[in-house]
Amino acid sequence: MTGHATTQSQPTTSYEAAAAQREARFLEALQAAGLRLTAQRRAICHYLARTDAHPTAQQIYEALKPQFPSLSLTTVYNTLDVLVRLGLVYALGGAGDRAVHYETNTEPHINLACLVCHRVIDLPMPEVGAWRSRVAEASGFKILGARLVYYGVCPECQRQNPADDNPPSE
Amino acid sequence: MTGHATTQSQPTTSYEAAAAQREARFLEALQAAGLRLTAQRRAICHYLARTDAHPTAQQIYEALKPQFPSLSLTTVYNTLDVLVRLGLVYALGGAGDRAVHYETNTEPHINLACLVCHRVIDLPMPEVGAWRSRVAEASGFKILGARLVYYGVCPECQRQNPADDNPPSE
DNA sequence: CTCCAAACTTGGAATGATTCTAAAGTATTT
DNA sequence: AAATACTTTAGAATCATTCCAAGTTTGGAG
Fold it and tell me: By C-alpha distance, which of B130, B116, B127, B121 is closest to B150?
């Protein structure tokens, strides 16, 4: 069950192929942890595997609600919590709003948060992987995760508001 | 006014000397920005210049309240906001509690947050400075700050709780 | 020195993300 | 089918942070 997801329905694009694979990894990990694969958990994993935005719990809830009217926000929080503890999803704050954003990109990278539009994007950065062990050694911490966020103003928002030198902070 | 703070009252320790210098820098920056040096702002700058903890607004408020009974929490937030906008203080979240922690260490470094005791410590890391411009170039962002946080369990908490493999997350 | 307008501070109310709780629902085992 | 262990759910409770309206202080003009 660790191979490629090639026996499923033929994926239309390589993006969808990767997404399906990621989703499968989530579900397997949940099972391996002895947790049940409920419809709610499946839906949330399905959603997370297919976004490269960095949604908040609210956003996930609102996206899923139409097809899943009984879903409760608490369940979204609970499920995200489980996924974070399993290390499948990272939680990051500080995009200028007050909410926690979740991401599934576990490749070494940093986040760029726009303080104006509150979007977060990823920037691949392979060296990040090497830092982790250096930090652990130097500090004695048991490292469970990292949150490497640069914040500022994204190119689009710079264009729309060239003069503004004082964007809101945190 | 840019030289050493040697003409002030003779500092007892080099730590106090550095703190006084940092405090002076804060006050000058506030003035330079056309803001008033009120007693409240002075008190908050004084406090911030002398801590290497990463206090929350609440903690600053409680520390200052005894000597300053009229101080309000709102003022603490307002002042911190000003200092953050001026780039003198950084705001960082995600120490496992729900609060924003403030720090004055503007040297290139990363933060280590303990998810168990919610303390944050600094780890100097000179390379961090070089990353900033690389990130700006690669992304087109106007970079206003960074928040490089590794989170995990600090040595002390590991000792007290060796078996716990599931510390609270975010 | 006095008065004004702008800049600040204050307490309390409002917001809003997250967490807690108790009750009801579902799967799994016996 | 009954019992047990997980899960989900709605709504209440928390709590950091923000908002607001009113009172204070400050620096400068007269």
Answer: B121
